[in-house]
Amino acid sequence: MATPASAGEEDAFSRYRSPLVSRYASPEMAFNFSERKKFGTWRRLWLYLAQAEKSLGLSITDEQIQEMEANLDNIDFKMAAEEEKRLRHDVMAHVHTFAHCCPKAAGIIHLGATSCYVGDNTDLIVLRDGLDLLLPKLARVINRLADFAEKYANLPTLGFTHYQPAQLTTVGKRCALWIQDLCIDLHNLERARDELRFRGVKGTTGTQASFLQLFEGDHDKVEELDRLVTAMAGFKRAYIVTGQTYSRKVDIEVLSVLASLGASVHKICTDIRLLANLKEIEEPFEKEQIGSSAMPYKRNPMRSERCCSLARHLMTLILDPLQTASVQWFERTLDDSANRRVSLAEAFLTADIILSTLQNISEGLVVYPKVIARRIQQELPFMSTENIIMAMVKAGGNRQDCHEKIRVLSQQAAAVVKQEGGDNDLIARIHADPYFSPIHDQLEILLEPKSFTGRASQQVTRFLKEEVYPVLTPYQSKMGVKMELTL
Q1: Which of 6, 162, 293, 477 is the catalytic position?
Q2: pLDDT tens series, the chain, 487 aa
Q3: Cα–Cα distance between 37 and 122 in angstroms, integer?
Q4: What spatial distance separates the first Cα and last Cα of the chain, rounded to whole Å?
Q5: How many CA atoms lie within 13 A of 148 on its CB side?
Q6: How many CA atoms lie within 13 A of 421 on its CB side?
Q7: Residue 402 and residue 181: Cα distance in Å, rounded?
Q8: CA 318 to chain CA centroid, nearest Å
Q9: Which of 56, 121, 223, 268 could be stapled to 178 by a disulfide with Cβ–Cβ 3.0 to 4.6 Å?
Q10: How far apart are CA 101 and CA 68, in angstroms?
Q11: Residues forming a β-bridge with 159
Q12: Do 149 and 459 touch, CB atoms closer than 8 A?
């Protein structure tokens, strides 16, 4: 049995690592939730606060500001860990660590602020930056699927309701349904991003009392301080009222959008998995990829399965902020902290992974038109019966007599399919029945699959032109990135 490595032998393989980071997530999203990004942002927030306080008349020198600027990324993580172990307070541990390399500025770091000044404002910056990473990735997926929908807009395929054969549609129209869901997600992600505000400079319970004291009762200067720091952090607006934290309802809004994206991706990839079973459409399959360790012939839809697996996790994460928001007593309780460290990061990392994987799938979807055509031919005779009845009536036949004839022949053909395992021979039976001789020469036209797809191809064309391509315009400069998966 394997045993834990000793302290001197410990390496990356001797401790648990979240597969979200070690196996799947993009480097940019992993960095967004890294300690370097987090604590580097804390230092920048302390710098913004000092700069704004100085500009409004507090006794802070240029030398102190320059010292802070020179040490924004000079983080001694070992010292910070030791300080936190001693103080049992992460923010004060980093105040001391920053002060150690900025001795001249030590006295004005974190001046007037509470822990949530750096903690919550950093979270909002990370959420904003995370959405900025996801938006172009989602746009690329929509773009790739739009190309696919346009290419196959006219290819008839069997539709399914209740996973039973239904009226024909087209491969492109089915893809358009996927795209429509993702466009809703794109809109919701953009809305969530645009509606994010900064917590700003609010003090211990949100009243700004400490800052009002610093500025000797000058309300205008306190409001200007809030405005200046908000702008420095890249936000257009700050929440006017907060408790110690920004409302945890904000986390619900963001994660609900990500959970909804998870639902869309799960539906799309489930469809692809079902189509792979039918051998009509397959996801990319690498030349040396192995589908099964025991069955060498298998071509499992492992990318789609991965998306479904992770999408389920993403959808469940919305429960965390819902429960957290519901139990925040009065101005704040600390039972939100540990939960949010996990749930916020995992939601964005998971969304990042499923979008990267879905882009890879959508760039390499393989369609098998002959398999699709064969399945249509197995079901089309039954679907064509109404058209055959109409043709017979036009040729002088009686609608009720024709309906009964076709009912009997259809039952006979169904018995061949279900009881004997044979092919659907309804059309051969109609050809053999002299009753239908007036329309025998029309049967080939009546059975043309494209005559059963209605306006599917026209709907795809209009949908892409009016509702898809316009929303992709802001992301055009980022469309060229092709997605290669290492796992």
Answers
A1: 162
A2: 555 655 555 666 788 889 999 899 999 999 999 999 999 999 999 999 999 999 999 999 999 999 999 999 999 999 999 999 999 999 999 999 999 999 999 999 999 999 999 999 999 999 999 999 999 999 999 999 999 999 999 999 999 999 998 899 999 999 999 999 999 999 999 999 999 999 999 999 999 999 999 999 999 999 999 999 999 999 999 999 999 999 999 999 999 999 999 999 999 999 999 999 999 999 987 655 555 555 545 578 999 999 999 999 999 999 999 999 999 999 999 899 999 999 999 999 999 999 999 999 999 999 999 999 999 998 888 888 888 999 999 999 999 999 999 999 999 999 999 999 998 999 999 999 999 999 999 988 888 999 899 999 999 999 999 999 999 999 999 887 776 665 5
A3: 9
A4: 28
A5: 24
A6: 0
A7: 43
A8: 13
A9: 268
A10: 9
A11: 166
A12: no
Q: Which two tokens stand for residue 241?
A: 């009222």
* The pair of three-digit structure tokens given for residue 368, joined into one six-digit string: 């098998």
* Tokens 């009222």 found at: 241
Provide the b/e sequence for 401-414 (b: ≥16 CB within 10 Å). ebeebbeebbeebe
Q: Which of 22, 55, 292, 326 is catalytic?
A: 292
Closest CA to 442 of 377, 393, 371: 393
Active site residue 162: yes
Closest C-alpha among 210, 179, 215, 173 to residue 53: 215
Amino acid at site 460: V
**One-letter amino acid identity for 316?**
T
Can you read off the two tokens belonging to residue 327?
């139990």
Angle among Cα 229, 123, 104 to the nearest 5 degrees reads 50
Length of the chain in residues, anyone?
A: 487
